[in-house]
């Protein structure tokens, strides 16, 4: 989330609400603190994953933070990200995908492993022009081009 927030601040896209994007980067995976990072290989349906994460956010916002104004703002940002209806949410989703590829590249270099699946499941899905350019640059660097 930290690298995503920094990347959000690096964009040249003036049409985005950058402070909102940075905040969304910080809260987008908050539910995973309780439910863990559920991957497709675990066989849990998308619906069940959504339910578990919604329950975790509800607990965080209402039980731990007592539905405070700040908690409700966190929840609204998380829901906006989950619903993917705004350009900011779609941009942050692309940053999440790019960050996964960046992390995979670091693991490849550190552990001498080939993690093509991570690149195949992230880079082709990038929609934001600038983030796609960053992903293409990563791919070129990875291929030694």
Automatic annotation (TrEMBL):
GO cellular component: cytoplasm
HD domain sequence ranges: 1-114
InterPro entries: HD_domain, YfbR/HDDC2
Single annotated GO MF: metal ion binding
Record's keyword annotation contains Hydrolase: yes
Pfam families noted in UniProt: HD_3
Transmembrane segments: none
Keywords: Hydrolase, Metal-binding
Protein name: HD domain-containing protein
């Amino acid at each position: 989330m930290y690298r995503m927030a920094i990347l959000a601040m690096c964009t040249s896209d003036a049409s985005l609400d950058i402070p909102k994007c940075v905040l969304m980067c910080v809260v987008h995976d908050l539910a995973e603190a309780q439910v863990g990072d559920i991957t497709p290989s675990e066989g849990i349906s998308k619906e069940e994953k959504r339910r578990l994460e919604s329950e975790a956010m509800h607990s965080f916002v209402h039980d731990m933070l007592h539905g405070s104004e700040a908690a409700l703002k966190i929840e609204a940002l998380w829901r906006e990200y989950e619903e993917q209806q705004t350009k900011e949410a779609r941009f942050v989703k692309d940053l999440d995908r790019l960050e996964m590829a960046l992390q995979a590249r670091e693991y490849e270099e550190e552990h001498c492993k080939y993690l093509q699946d991570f690149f195949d499941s992230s880079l082709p899905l990038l929609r934001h022009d600038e983030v796609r350019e960053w992903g293409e640059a990563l791919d070129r660097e990875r291929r030694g081009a």
